[in-house]
Amino acid sequence: MTTQLSVIKTNLYDQDFYLWIETTVKLLQENKFDQVDLLNLIEELQCMGKSQKNALKSNLIVVLMHLLKYKYQPEKRSNSWLSSIFEHRGRLEFSLEDSPSLRRYLSESLDKCYQNARKQASLETGLNLNIFPIDCPFTLEQTLDSDYLPE
What we know:
Number of helices: 6
Number of strands: 0
Low-confidence stretches: none
Oligomer: single chain
Radius of gyration: 22 Å
Structural class: mainly alpha
Number of domains: 2
Mean pLDDT: 92
């Protein structure tokens, strides 16, 4: 019986993901834990965590890149850059409001994200990579601060 139930659970997961979600939620609400497709549920929860982390890194890279462009190409500053900084800081803020524990992860990722942003800024501006400091010139607090702009 358990094997048949596992096959049914896996088939539903593979055949109709949204129906699998609805079914899983219903089973959990009804305390029918023995019928829940635990393997796929665990996998999906892990993916959700990774997805949140990836979104944070992506938004952090965009903010850092635009801060670099803003600082090192003052003659080309634009409302578009400011808008992008504002938008991605907002995304970071909302993510941290929902999951404050991710702030530690963001702090740990700052240097790696900065290296990515540094390369992107070089590509977008046409400036030599060496123009941009090797070490991040912005603290995490400055990067997230909605009023901070480098001069």
